[in-house]
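Changelog-linked ticket: copper (II) ion example.
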Amino acid sequence: MKRFLFLPAAAIALFGAVGLLGAPGASAADPAPLVVKVGDGQPGYAVTQFLPSNVTIQTGSTIEFDFAWFELHNIALFEGDGPAGKPVETPSPATFPNPSGYVFSGDINGDPANPTKYSIKFTKAGTYSYTCFIHRGMDASVKVVDAGSAGAGSIDNQLSATARANAQYNSGIVQLKVIGAGLKGAPDASKPGGGKTVESVLGNFTPGIGQVLQFAPSTINIREGDSVRWVSQDGAPHDVVFGAPPQASPFEFPGAKSGSSYDGTKPTASSIISQDDFGPTTAKSFELVFTKAGSYNYICLLHADQGMVGTVVVQARGTTAPLPPNTGTGRFGDGLNGWYIIIGALLLAAGVGTAGVAKARR
Ligand SMILES: [Cu+2]
């Protein structure tokens, strides 16, 4: 693998370049750990940001990072360029600075019902940047100031930090909903032998903001012989799975050939679909021809637990009544089968896809 660590220029620029001011009136000393969320979300939307992304703490105090949403993240904090290879995971609670020159949490998948915590104690004044390798633009910093120093008045307490976290999260969700509402594939295309091809867009990843984790549209109405083509518009990895997948990792199974037929009788899965390279079978789009009337649910195996599920409703070839419009940008909780959630949870709990995801940092 080529060099794993790469600190974005923007993150480097954060060192000393950004004025980090706490809320006015923040208390000067707060011995309790300061909680920072590592991403958050709601079905269909993942805010890939540290919340809040800038905090000021007193020398010797601890930040407790709270992995509270389903998305996979990590925390990488290092001095200088950091190690050349993938860093060794640092057990929690970690201390920084330390002789290794870095702290790396390893990949952690959050769970709202049982959030994983990861603590870092900061023992030396300074401003330190940290990042999540998986999600480009997920950069943050902590300013550590000595008690009694000039900057001590700006030390955060939990109230001031949470207020900024909430504002940042709400802003992220609003932006993601606007992005999600605008997701659109190419217009329906006529097929040479009759029928049509309908496009569905595989969500959106906007660095520094987050991800729309929905098929757009998610409910598609077609007739026998028509096709659906799922298209990636960015570098985030997704897949399309009808029925139980042949194995747990979408980064390993080759997937069906684009253009295959689907009649509902056997599980069919795409390979990873992304504009970026997640291995030799990565495709930028995936098309299935639907040959038999029926209603077929499908999921993105990577993001089913965040509501990335959909349905293709296929009418008999001879039907002439107008088809309902293709709608929806998420069906979480709406006729959702249990296995949607179970598979996604199992997959992500196993850290599946870490290598591929970490490589491309999405
Ligand atoms: Cu997905």
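Closing comment: Example verified and attached. Residues 1-30, 330-362 have pLDDT under 50 and may be disordered. The two ends are 17 Å apart (CA to CA).
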